[in-house]
Request: fold
Amino acid sequence: MSATRIEKDSMGELEVPGDALYGAQTQRAINNFPVSGIQMPVEFIHAIALIKQIASQVNQQLGLLDAKKAEAIQQAAIEIIDGQHPEQFPVDVFQTGSGTSTNMNVNEVVATIASKLADQPISPNDHVNMGQSSNDVIPTAIHISAALQTTRQLIPALEHLQNTIDAKAEQLTDVVKTGRTHLMDAMPVRMDQELGAWALQIRHGIERLQATLQRIFPIAQGGTAVGTGINAHAEFAQRFAQQLSQHTQLPFQPSASAFEGLSCQDTVVELSGQLKVIATSLMKIANDLRWMNSGPLAGLGEIALPALQPGSSIMPGKVNPVIPESVCMVAAQVIGNDTTITIAGQSGNFQLNVMLPVIAHNLLQSIALLGNAARLLADKAIRGFTVQEHQLQSALNRNPILVTALNPVIGYLKAAEIAKTAYKHNRPIIDVAEEMTDIPRAQLEQLLEPAHLTKGGIGPD
Reply:
């Protein structure tokens, strides 16, 4: 095969690599957008290929596309969905804002494969793109890929993280530690209470995703160029959504307004916002783990995370909390991605948003990063950490804030005086309280028992 060949489109002739499955429009995009070297996410390409597969089925059923062409298009699309020909989708993320270059890239590759399968010419525009426009394909592909990745990857990963936290909390129901507010000593808490808060953060994140998905399932397909449905059969949108739902087992449906589906990306901005919330939760949990693990001698030293790798190229024996650090970086990236998506979401000029490719890239990256980070945090940090009970007990015994339990008995000012004295002389609060009040030692032991103080209320049971 020659190094190049000549392909034609509506703008004329163009040299294309001889072994490329794509044609002139893809090559124009390659030439026009040498921006980042970042290609569109594979999940997004697969979603477009799925649109081509379903669309050809619908057009065949409607009598608009003959069976031989339709079946060849479907088989070509399936090859792409199955992971074949990944090198044939080189178009940069930072391309035309409608994503037309990527839509035509897929159209051309499908057409080339399908033409060979059918042994007859199949047009990327007239056949593969029948009843479609880039303007409804790309928004639909964003919704499809986001829904599939969220339901199949992210939510299961978050459920795994929540279950791992719950299981660890169940193991630590009897472990009492010093609570902290403002990073300063506060009243005692049990570790299962602390971890239970983490688990609920994750559960709320899952619920937020599930709620937003109800607005992701409506799709723009069938709206074509501006939302009027021009060049698509009147039944196309409904039939497409039905067959897509059957194929994916997700409740896709036509958008209540194709004009809304093409002109704005509000629901995707909402979904990105939910991803940002989850990133915020993961960063909080990861940073709690880093603080609890700090030391081992000069920090809190409450837990020991699993030792996974040497922590320094110069300090022998140093081990760092690498998984929480990785998770924090993921969270930072997702929060940054959300800012990009928010800005891009504002670019719905009249009947079309014109920052769709960068929305797709950032959204799918965020979903993938959070899913991977959640599993790492569960399996390589939370599941395996051990509690340094001696360190916890030592800190509890010296915690002057325990005196808070005496407020109802001796008043705030007297309690503050005891706390300051205990702190100044580094003495157990119970010894100072015994000296500075008339409360018997036995009663003080009941009032200041850390485990009892984790139950709230006033005084001992």
